[in-house]
TrEMBL record:
Coiled coil: none annotated. The keyword Methyltransferase does not apply. This is Amidase domain-containing protein. InterPro entries: Amidase_dom, AS_sf. GO terms for molecular function: hydrolase activity. It comes from the Eukaryota.
Length: 369
């Protein structure tokens, strides 16, 4: 297990946890990861880093090893990771502007759109609450199934207050159920009954972990039949349409009568794990943007503080939420990084990076008060 440099009692997360740990330990200025259900965003959130999950087709992926080669509708996307946002933005722009569409047939001919980035930074400076161009954010405090642990809930409140202090509009985010998206995504990823995963693990010579055995050792579940797989693809499209409609409907909820620019939400409901801390493997917060092929940036907010992040009584959503709530181990988490993610629609990499800059500026302004 790779450990977090900020707290060696917990994991650095994954799947790009090795890269995240190296960056957090200042062993490298920039890094790359791949993200199919959160594998860039999760380790970045756990290691005080910035990480971009782009939409498919903006960063070259040809030649990257994968256990899911040939899967037609859900792709692991490569994205940059960095300790500071400026480096992340610089690397993203360099790769997008490298003209990779001439060498990789999957890349869209879509150069870096500086005007999209500049539009957000310009609108961030508007201090007139009646100006209909001011920025609009939504915040998801929970997904209605799993309640984030106290440090994450505190981070959400910190960001909400910081944005409102700067004059940006913030509304609640109550979208179609994220669990539905996660179920569709993992059924698609598991449509071969884990044959490729078993092959990769056998080739590594390493023993499988107990936490993942159920994902690839279910002998009773065979590969999906073609009609079943097509139905999953259809369910994915129905969900994407439903989510897109909800996003556009937020024009009825904002004072500007325009949809929100970005959505802030947890990366995971928990901070970290180790062999002594049970885990739920709950990934709906990151899996949903992946199913939608949305862009997202994970960003650092604060650190676990044992003096204020004590676990109090909470109104939970059910037995599963209770089981996740009971994994909170404050004594093992004190001082650990706490990160969130901001999500935009498909192929809005410039916009989501610019919105992250606005969020960080708002947080820095709050700290100076």
């Amino acid at each position: 297990m790779t450990f977090c440099p900020y707290n060696r009692q917990i994991s650095a997360g994954g799947a790009s946890g090795g890269e995240a740990a190296l960056l957090a330990a200042k062993g490298s200025p920039l890094g790359w990861g791949t993200d199919i259900a959160g594998s860039i965003r999760i380790p970045c959130a756990l290691n005080n880093l910035f990480g971009l999950r782009p939409s498919f087709g903006r960063f070259p992926a040809s030649g990257i090893a994968s256990t899911l080669t040939g899967l037609p509708i859900v792709n692991a996307v490569p994205g940059p990771m960095a300790a500071d946002l400026e480096s992340l933005a610089f690397l993203a722009k360099c790769i997008i502007d490298a003209g990779n569409w001439d060498h990789d047939h999957d890349i869209y001919c879509l150069p870096w759109r500086q005007d999209h980035y500049d539009s957000i930074t310009r609108r961030a400076e508007i201090d007139n609450p009646n100006n209909n161009e001011r920025l609009r954010f939504a915040i998801m405090k929970d997904d209605g199934l799993v309640t984030p642990h106290p440090p994450i809930a505190r981070a959400l409140n910190i960001v909400e207050e910081a944005l409102e202090d700067k004059g940006h509009e913030v509304i609640p985010w109550l979208p179609p159920p994220h669990l539905s998206a996660a179920n569709i995504l993992f059924q698609i990823l598991g449509s071969t009954a884990g044959q490729e995963i078993r092959t990769a693990i056998d080739a590594s010579g390493e023993p499988p972990t107990d936490q993942l055995k159920s994902w690839y050792e279910d002998d009773e579940q065979g590969p999906s039949l073609t009609p079943e797989f097509w139905n999953l693809c259809h369910e994915r499209e129905k969900y994407r349409k439903l989510y897109h409609s909800y996003w556009n409907s937020t024009a009825n909820m904002t004072t500007t009568q325009r949809p929100v620019d970005g959505v802030i939400m947890p990366v995971t409901p928990t901070i970290g794990l180790n062999r002594a801390i049970p885990t739920s493997n709950y990934c709906a917060y990151t899996a949903t943007p992946s199913l939608l092929d949305y862009t997202a940036v994970s960003f650092p907010v604060t650190f676990v503080d044992s003096s204020i992040d004590t676990q109090t009584e909470a109104t939970l959503f059910g037995d599963f939420d209770q089981s996740v709530w009971e994994t909170y181990r404050l004594d093992a988490l004190d001082g650990s990084p706490v990160g969130l993610q901001v999500v935009c629609k498909r192929q809005e990499e410039e916009k989501v990076i610019a919105l992250t800059k606005v969020i960080m500026q708002s947080l820095n302004n709050r700290k100076r008060k």
